[in-house]
Model the fold of this input.
Amino acid sequence: MSSSWLYDIPNETLIHILSYASECDLMHLHLVSRMMNEVSSSNPLWRALCVQHWGWDVHSNSHAEDTSTYWKDVYTDIAHNQGMYRHKTIYRRVHQVWERIERWTKVFAPLVYSTLAPPCTEENVEQCLASLSSRNLAPLPLEVQCSSRIHDGQIPERSLRNIHGLLGGFSVYDLHVNFILCSISTGTYLTHHQWKNNCFLLAFNQERPIVGLWIVLREFSQWGRTYAVGEVVQCAANGISCLPAYSSYIEVLEQHANSLEGGRHDVIDGEIIQFPTFASEGSDCTTHGIQVRANGLFVSVESGNIVFHAQGTQYVPESGIFTFAYRIRISMDVNVPATQAAQLVSRHWEIIDESNGSMEVVDGEGVIGHFPTMKPGAYFEYVSKTRQATPRYTMRGALTFRLLDGSGNVEVTIAPFPLHYQ
Done:
């Protein structure tokens, strides 16, 4: 039977029929005839396969803006570089979350975006796996391998000065936290030379690399809790104990992308701030025209020795060293009458342990050595911290201001806000 009837079918119809074919079938069809080669290589077919197999968002990807993009070449390039992961759905998830992070940082944190490193080579991954195997560690989870073949951490280590970490940071007193995503080669090196030989470094703190995020590659137990292969832990300040952080590396990326897109983080001077935005979390109260906004953050790098007990299938923190930072913003709206201008005199804090209702009271002059004056349009923001022995607290308080017109003092309420471990 002659196949000439194929030539009578419109190209649009053939393309629709071939949309049900696999990439292997399409590759074979280009050998049939010149016409079938043209149809089986059409952009709509291969563009759809890029979405189906690799999770590409073709509407936001840079290729979408280029009308000359040849999607068959795009697909084969990805298959060449990432083909070993294609049968795993994890690649699709990793690629999609990286596209989200790239889009957000490119717009809102361009300095961070500019530090995202190019992919490592498959040879780099194989060397890392061989190194881990030689020490009887589990292979690096596929999501970490996939991620490194998209972005191999952030910029090379020689340029670390003044670099803002993708996972964010903050400063309080002499502590500066700045979590930089680690390359495969750096992770391999530090895994050889640091901390317990059970984990692989994923992200490090610029000032103290060991106080970073690590992924467990050999099960171990500590302080009443067992850590399974694939879990992500945070090394504590003493460089010995660790804290559970995430169930997997893909959870690290997805939760971070959700937080960024959800508007939970400010960007200040190019740095992604780990504190949640005041609009997304915390307390807000205005007294006598003075607004006080407050929120808290668990500081893992200054916590440790946390004892857990099993509760069903979960591990519940019981006691240890729990350090919390809290951010306070004091402001006066520009429309407040100038007669309400006032200067801070003193502070009063109440820190309530949610486990038993006990309360610690802290009184003092000013805040962190400052006595800011609130006039219409003025604001003052600071960060401080407190160290406690259990995991959940509520903090509330008041600020005493002296009116500048000499008519007396006013007490400004700080509404309750949580200090919670996880």
